[in-house]
Amino acid sequence: MDNNVDVIVIGSGAAGSAAALQAHADGASVVILEKSGRDAAGGNTRLSGSGWFVNQDPAAARTFLRSLNGSFTVADDVIDAWAENTQGLSDWLRSLGATVAMTGDFHSTAEYGELDGSSCYAGMDTIEGKMGNELLYRFLVSALAERDITTLFDTEATRLLTDESGAVTGVEIRSGEQTSQIHARRGVILATGGFEANPAMVRDYLRLENPKIWGSPSATGDGHRMAQAVGADLWHMNNMMTITGIPGDLENPTGFFLALWNAHNYVFLSREGRRFTDESTEMRHGHVFREGSYQHFPVQPMNIVFDETMRLAGQLSPGRDALPVGHMVLDEGYEWSSDNQAEIDKGWIVKADTLAELAGKLGLDPAVVETSVHRYNEACADGVDHSFGRNPETLAPVATAPFYAVSGPPLLGWSSGGPRRDGHSRVLDTAGSPIPGLYAAGAVSSTYSAAKDGGFHIADAFAFGRVAGAHAAARATAGD
To answer: Where are the coiled-coil regions (predicted)?
Structure first.
């Protein structure tokens, strides 16, 4: 292959594919570098629900994004670009040949409907109106192939190349044992995903204690490292999405989504065995509203204690038929048992005949656990949770033996922070100036500094992938 192209894209998910498709449409020669093999490529795009929100009003969208960001502001030019370029994504995909329809099962309305600007949110579109199952990624692969855009799989980008002025001019790559270089006449676009699979970065920036991850094990912060090496500034590195999870096999870095959908006979207990929160508070893509603000939740290891009624109510972790999302479901093909018994047998769910016995197995004080559950059950009998204000409709006792617990850290869906960029997707240095020839889009540099709504990550990846591809394609060799 030609080691000189106009635009190099690193990463083959939604952002990378959008960038490559747009740059190609604008007349640039493009190559995509993907460190994973064909079957594992696509990052979290392949493993996610793969939907994008429908932005019906860019003016309202500007307000909505500012409302979601709160005091954690991003630059006005980024907000403007996001609001304008997240509109019309479904039409763009249809122009590429996609069959697009709205999903009726998920995110038909805004999660943050109480915030100013939420009227921009008109639901979530997906390929064929279906969630997950790799449908979006498979379409993007076909769209790239139809346009003869080359993706080099099993090819890791190890270093950005720069000239004497500091402009990015290419990428050093490693494929197998061979190291070589590819040069970019117009620009390099980072679309490498987040850093949730990099334990050191997770500890340093997210302050999480050894969480399991939901998505791609390849999200190891490669783009962050390469951007920093050429002087990039960073933004909102502490933002993320966590959800309730089940650790599963301790040797596997990925875990399972714990869906508390089928029954309400459960409580959240701290590592000391005490109830500490309203379990019914809506979890909105990693945030809950508590004490007057939107806060990350969950962020600490906890024990989710439940009874036989809930165990028999259905799968604690939805299978491929219900929610075809995540590494364990899509890549490892794990099918959770209908009655959760197989997972009890594996030891992933702790079982005991009494609460005191359960506490002992969890390493907790039996008296504390029994008191915590007893007080919760009293609230159920009274129909009022005086301690934490749990929704009365969800007050169902933990009273039918045997008793069970899922114990461990939260499940980390994705990180959001990365190289700071402007409204043209240009990566900025620590002085606020663009690094010539370097762009970023997608989870490597998500727009979202705080809360986000359903379908926002894919929309952001598409929007700024296209912005980056267009700007890079139009960039003269000696200019910005």
So the answer is: none
